[in-house]
Design goal:
The chain is of the alpha/beta class. 35% of the residues lie in helices and 23% in strands.
Length: 475
């Protein structure tokens, strides 16, 4: 099968990967900071609402001549003071919607819808970025690849380097594609939300006879972070015996924000290895990530030439992201992503690993970001219970993980913490499931729920009507 991309496109990707491998991390950072300062000027001059906002606050764009000034003087944006307050024209470069090709809505989970508006040029830029990542991780230029996009809500994957199928959350379509087209390709990449991917892999094996270990299948999860034990469980179903194998199957994750970009951050083989080491080693976990809740944040790389990333309120705080591409139709500076995170310089991570006895120098000289989620938890009189801890415990035992959908609800009832867990359709709970789950949860949480119930699929009372289309509310 012939490559899907032109020779020029493949060469461009290889050159960018080479530069990211060979350029000193300090230079990558400095170039990104320079692009950040330049973005202030052109966004203030071309986006009506932003020019007015700076003028109202007495800020001249040329006064933002350092990253210190950028961080101390420019206002913080969010959904409420942008999309809820202004028209799309006012938010758009040039003050018009000329040349737009696509619109992507956010989930609306916060109560306010935001929008990612793309021109043809921006879609091409997005495809170049995604395809570079796909080449680096999976070698798609060298291996004909079937990419199946299972993301919900019409989320598109812009790629010109793979054979693309978009199924949304239709599992029957996924099974048909794997069975009919899988043998024609050297590898398959499945992209989707973690719980839906779990359903695909389990049902594909149990009900459709798909022999996943015999196929070269990679997984990319989106929508929300994954537990490290989830990765281990899914790896068992896919036949992954060594997560550190240089050319092995990858179960990875990426993070995007609809109104910014769908691939802001992503894992690499090295970040996966680092997170798995920290998952098993409390000292390394604390050295890397600070306060130890017993579980690891997601750990990604990001590209300083595409976005500037900072945190509010100290080293660990809410992530604030600035998009830098002049091709963006709605360019947003210092935009609150809603997630708690921490930014790491490349050499900082290498030094921390070395101090903990880990000899690992990531291939790409990019900075990192740890993403802790939304910081939501169930407050109890004894302390908080985090959904991330529950996720780790649910996947700690493969036989328990095999019985659940991944959905659960933490709540307070008459002063007691209650945890309801949804079983898969037609499944019963595993032997001693509650006892073994609580024993596993003790490794990830200082506080235990007083009541735990594994409930029948159809009688589970939460979010049953949405059928994988919306983010699940764990609290």
């Amino acid at each position: 099968m012939q490559p899907f991309s032109s020779a020029e496109e493949r060469q461009e990707r290889q050159e960018l990967i080479r530069l990211l491998r060979e350029t000193p991390p300090e230079l990558i950072r400095a170039m990104g900071e320079q692009q950040t300062l330049e973005a202030v000027k052109w966004i203030a001059g071309s986006v009506p609402f932003y020019g007015r906002l700076l003028a109202e606050q007495g800020i001249q764009p040329e006064e933002i001549d350092s990253i210190a000034a950028f961080r101390s003087r420019l206002p913080i944006l969010d959904k409420h003071n942008t999309f809820a307050r202004h028209t799309i024209q006012e938010l758009s470069a040039g003050g018009h919607l000329d040349n737009i090709r696509t619109v992507l809505t956010s989930s609306g989970h916060s109560g306010v819808f935001s929008f990612g508006v793309n021109t043809r040029e921006n879609l091409l830029r997005s495809a170049r970025s995604i395809d570079t990542g796909l080449q680096y991780l999976f070698g798609v230029d060298d291996h004909p690849t079937l990419l199946i996009n299972c993301l919900p809500m019409g989320v598109k994957v812009n790629t010109n380097a793979t054979f693309l199928a978009e199924t949304s959350v239709r599992d029957d379509m996924v099974f048909a594609l794997v069975n009919k087209f899988g043998p024609e390709f050297e590898e398959i990449i499945i992209i989707g939300e973690g719980s839906f991917i779990k359903k695909i892999i389990e049902d594909g094996q149990e009900q459709h006879g798909i022999d996943w270990p015999q196929l070269r299948v990679h997984i990319i999860t989106g929508e929300e972070g994954i537990a490290e034990n989830y990765r281990t469980y899914l790896g068992g179903l896919l036949g992954v015996t060594d997560f550190d194998a240089p050319n092995g199957k990858i179960i990875g994750s990426s993070m995007g924000v609809a109104e910014l970009d769908l691939n802001l951050f992503h894992e690499t083989r090295e970040t996966i290895r680092i997170r798995r080491l920290a998952h098993r080693d409390a000292d390394l976990r604390k050295a890397l990530f600070g306060e130890d809740h017993g579980f690891c944040p997601m750990f990604f790389v990001y590209y300083p030439h595409r976005c500037y990333v900072e945190t509010l309120d100290g080293e660990i705080g809410e992530l604030v992201i600035s998009m830098l591409s002049p091709e963006m139709k709605i360019p947003l500076l210092r935009y609150r992503a809603g997630d708690i995170g921490k930014v790491f310089e490349y050499r900082e991570v290498v030094a921390t690993l070395a101090a903990q006895g880990v000899d690992l120098q990531p291939d790409l000289k990019l900075p990192f970001v740890g993403v802790y989620g939304r910081g939501k938890m169930l407050p109890t009189s004894d302390g908080p219970i985090y959904p991330e801890a529950v996720k780790e415990a649910l996947y700690a035992h493969a036989d328990i993980a095999a019985t659940i959908t991944g959905n659960f609800r933490l709540r307070m009832e008459q002063g007691s913490a209650v945890l309801d867990i949804q079983l898969r359709e037609g499944r019963r709970s595993a032997p001693r499931a509650v006892e073994r789950f609580l024993a596993a949860l003790a490794d990830y949480s200082r506080v235990m729920p007083q009541q735990v119930a594994f409930g029948d699929y159809l009688s589970f009372p939460y979010n049953m009507s949405v059928d994988w289309e919306r983010k699940f509310a764990y609290l």
